[in-house]
Design a protein that fits this description.
By secondary structure, the protein is α/β, with parallel strands linked by helices. The chain is built from 5 helices and 6 strands. Strand 5, helix 5 and strand 6 form a beta-alpha-beta unit.
């Protein structure tokens, strides 16, 4: 039995949340409007709305949306009981990372975004599902991201599942 404030880790596809009930799929996006590499490809294969809404948000935030900026979140409902949380937690993209020397991940932005994800999950009674956010193309380290999940989600009683892809 997993303690209520622990993260469940599994091998699988985060776009297919395990368990029943409402689910929120969280992932990290960049702040330059680029979509097309990493986990977003799996999202776009399953649903068109997360990408189209992200692009619309980037080009001109609708009046009912927060400004497109680091730390903000866009919630896109893709089925009756599944939402995708487009969290802006990456500054720029990883191209040229070796020259710059620092990865595009922004932990402070992920921290702020996860607080909003927690609020939305509580309001909708949703569990939260994700890949190891911020640790792929954004270049982050899981030992910095995991405590943010525990603080903003697990300690608030929100079930969290983190998915690792099956090794090929």
């Amino acid at each position: 039995m997993t303690p209520s404030n622990a993260i469940t880790y599994c091998v699988g596809d985060a776009t297919v949340p395990i368990g029943g009930g409402p689910a929120l799929i969280a992932h990290v996006c960049n702040d330059v409007g680029a979509w097309g590499a990493g986990f977003v490809c799996a999202l776009s294969k399953r649903w068109k709305q997360p990408e189209s809404e992200y692009r619309r948000w980037f080009s001109k935030a609708p009046a009912d949306m927060p400004k497109f900026a680091l730390g903000e979140v866009q919630f896109v409902q893709v089925t009756n009981d599944i939402w995708v949380a487009n969290m802006i937690g990456q500054h720029g993209i990883s191209r040229g990372l070796k020259k710059r020397g620092s990865p595009p991940v922004r932990y402070e932005a992920i921290d702020r975004a996860l607080a909003k994800v927690g609020d939305h999950a509580l309001k909708t009674k949703a569990s939260v599902h994700m890949p190891r956010i911020g640790c792929g193309l954004a270049g982050g380290r899981w030992e910095f991201v995991e405590p943010l999940l525990i603080t903003h989600l697990c300690q608030r009683g929100i079930p969290v599942t983190v998915y690792d892809l099956k090794p090929s």
